[in-house]
């Protein structure tokens, strides 16, 4: 394991026990968490993106704020739902944020996940073309976005302004950003597609398919297929692969109160409201030595180069800094990881 980052869902709600009662509190605390993570030696600070929910919705302002307060840590998303995006405007936002961060942006994008809105992308003005599905539209938006950040001309110039007829790229451009795009994959088929497209692979704590094998083995199979297709496609660079896990080492009474019930957690199989079954990964909660041992045996964790630990952001900055410190001190070394300084 080369890198460890945190993944915040950005929850906020005015309920008892929440330290993030408003959207502003959740946003400001996300920036503070990035600062704390960098001080602890974490390699990445990532935010989840959801629409029509009390979570992070527009990631680039908070990513830019995180960039302004940190110097080393990677900043990313897991994932941006491309059904909702104007890909050329997103290319401008991404490039500017990447320039502010001095090239630390790692953008996870995908088709998105089940959501509260019945026709959310259409409400934003994005409707699949004739014969397209919403997943097809997300991939089309992704293709336009990736070509734009790579410098492709996307608009005809006005010869009266430019003196000649050329194709104009969006500006600014941020060198190297095109190699730091990840596809959030929930199946083996989409992992194959991501490899064919030359995108890094981001796999989360759930897969939208179930073959009856344990979650980590199914995910490891997905990663192996991705890497095989990557090699067969002939890409020159080495791809990156991340997996997400809920990791809760219990070192004091407060940890026990919050997560003691998750000791002995197992995989879950269920429905996300769409056809077919999904397999959800377990929570790694318990004594630090046992958590470290179990994570070290996780087949997909062994295959990935980046581990994103999901954090309970609504419990506040102090508690999550404590949680990350416990992971750094008691769990991560067993995975062969050392903190960056």
Automatic annotation (TrEMBL):
Keyword Secreted on entry: no
GO molecular function, one term: oxidoreductase activity
UniProt EC number: 1.-.-.-
The protein's enzyme class: oxidoreductase
Domain Luciferase-like, chain residue ranges per copy: 9-257
Protein name in UniProt: LLM class flavin-dependent oxidoreductase
Keywords: Oxidoreductase
